Amino acid sequence: MSLRYLPLRPFASMLLGLSMALAVLSSAVASADNTDSAGLPWAVVDKRSATLKVFRGDGSLAGQTPVLLGSDRGDATVPGVGERTQSGRLRPGDRTTPAGRFVSSPGVNRQGEAVVWLDYEAAFAIHRLRGGASQAARKRHLTGHDPAQRRASAGCVVVPVAFFENVVQPLLGRGPAVVWVLPES
User: Fold this and answer.
1) Among 39, 51, 149, 172, which has the highest number of CB atoms less than 10 A from its own CB?
2) How far is CA 144 from CA 51, 60, 83, 139, 177, in A?
3) In this model, does residue 119 exceed pLDDT 60?
4) By residue range, what is the domain housing residue 48?
């Protein structure tokens, strides 16, 4: 047996174990959330894979998509970030996507664009990819296969325009919903 093949076995076992653990976690969240949502639509943001899955109130999957997440790592809301976000004065470390269970509500941002608020005070929302100077780069990040490359937002969960219009807006943007943001740690 060649020594160059030895490190692959533990790595493969680790990947298989991780894959199985993620499948169990995803199933557990789906089961818990289907009853926890009391018939409301619900969603799961998986920060490790940088994806969003949206479910109807009956628990059936409506759609899934890659997402952009906050460029700073962390699972907590930074105190005062909402006010700094609205005034355009974000500091290093402010751009986290907080983890937790959120009861969302539809709304609009300061520019009048439709968003789904997860935490209004923290200016934390699910919204479509916006136009502007950074749109082309952010669109490339969204279509990339590496979840680490999708760390490109100010903290919000940013989805492709078509997904927002066809899945998020009709299900999460019409009334309250439950959104789980899984921690990255």
Assistant:
1) 172
2) 12, 27, 31, 9, 28
3) yes
4) 3-182
